[in-house]
Amino acid sequence: MARDEAPAQRAEKKRGGLVGTLFKLPFTLMWIVIISIFCSVLIEWVGIYFDWFSQTGSDHAHQTMLSEMGYLDSQFTQSLLVSSPVEFATMIVDTCYEWLFAKSGIAGWVEQGAGAVGWAGTLKTYLQAAMFVTLMTLTRCVILVLTSPLFILAAIVGFTDGLVSRDLRRFGAGRESAFIYHHAKRMVTPIFLTGWLIYLSLPFSIHPNLFLLPCALLFGLMIAIATASFKKYL
């Protein structure tokens, strides 16, 4: 009786773990966005303080924000998720700006403080840079949402390729490696989430394809390795 219950308990634990992971995923992504905004603002402030950028004050953050919006306008004119990606992104960014900065009075205070000197001028510069960096990060969030089918496609291709490799190993009497399977399985989620975190936190403008395509390729590769190295007999 105990032998019959053990597999059932393991299967129930796996189902519970999968459901829990899917339930926590939106909250995890939300925390990643918040952490990315915090890291981006901190990097920008440190760069302004130590004069890392060629532009002075908040000009670097402003230019980076314009570059990211330019990628969105020119490269993401079509999407599988929404009919008009540019209008969708504009609505999201404008709504966030309205609630975060306009209604809170930060944007009005920064505009009224234009030309201020001393600590007031310094505070205005840092707040303005934080506003630009936040809007830039939100623009990148929209880009990630619009390119999410790329990661889904990479996962499907990796899973299919892994199943084929597993069947070849199964019928060809290939050796199993639990070490490879468990480590590849553990790397799938960190690669996905870490890729988001790094991309959202970069303090300079980068074309999305230069970062997202390698991340999607690595994501699909880990899924393929984990699927291919899964045990031959259940």
UniProtKB/TrEMBL annotation:
Pfam families (UniProt xref): DtrJ-like
InterPro entries: DtrJ-like
Keywords carried by this UniProt record: Membrane, Transmembrane, Transmembrane helix
Transmembrane intervals: 21-43, 142-164, 184-204, 210-230
Keyword Membrane: yes
Top-rank taxon, per record: Bacteria
Family annotation (NCBIfam families): conj_TIGR03747 (TIGR03747)
The protein, known as: Integrating conjugative element membrane protein (TIGR03747 family)
Organism field: Kushneria indalinina DSM 14324
